[in-house]
Design a protein that fits this description.
Layout lengths: L11 H4 L17 H33 L2 E4 L15 E7 L5 E3 L2 E8 L2 E8 L11 E9 L2 E8 L4 H6 L1 H10 L2 H7 L1
Parallel strand pairs: 1-2, 5-7
Antiparallel strand pairs: 2-4, 2-6, 3-4, 4-5, 6-7
Amino acid sequence: MDVGPGNSGVGPENTGVGPEEMDLTPRDRPESATAKKKRRWKPVLLLVVVLGFGGVIVTRFLTSAIDYYCNVDEVGVRSGCEGDRRLRVQGAVEEGSLKQAAGVTTFALTFNEKRIDVRYDGDPGGVFQECIPVVAHGRLVNDLLLSDRIEVKHSNTYVAENATRIDEAEDAACSEEVSSAG
């Protein structure tokens, strides 16, 4: 083998392998253990951040979207029926209290001799009338329930869970006027 100034002794002429037989594909270098660990933590950290952010959003949504069912006499008295959150207030529309003007409906809800005034922007429509039990959804501001939704016909779920409330409201609705007239 001739190793001279122009020949390093390495190459196809010295290995017996021609240029067409030489494998020039890159070889994989073994990764270090720290590089593997660093790569694993990035997706895990991203997943933790995304789940944490999602948990905060869901928690905020659920706490702000919950409307608590309360009878008129429970507003401000029972836990969950405080005026600083959305409420679903159930009671009977007081006879003589229903007024409609300029697209606004005002009325009073009564239950167990307690009364709350309600303002609803719009016409409740349907079978809404005096002396029937309804559920008004909204927020209490200065002893006035600002309602954005009125339910006249109770859902099956509400009826199943609150049958005694509905019976009491129907029995009490305008009973004073009926009994004094008779």
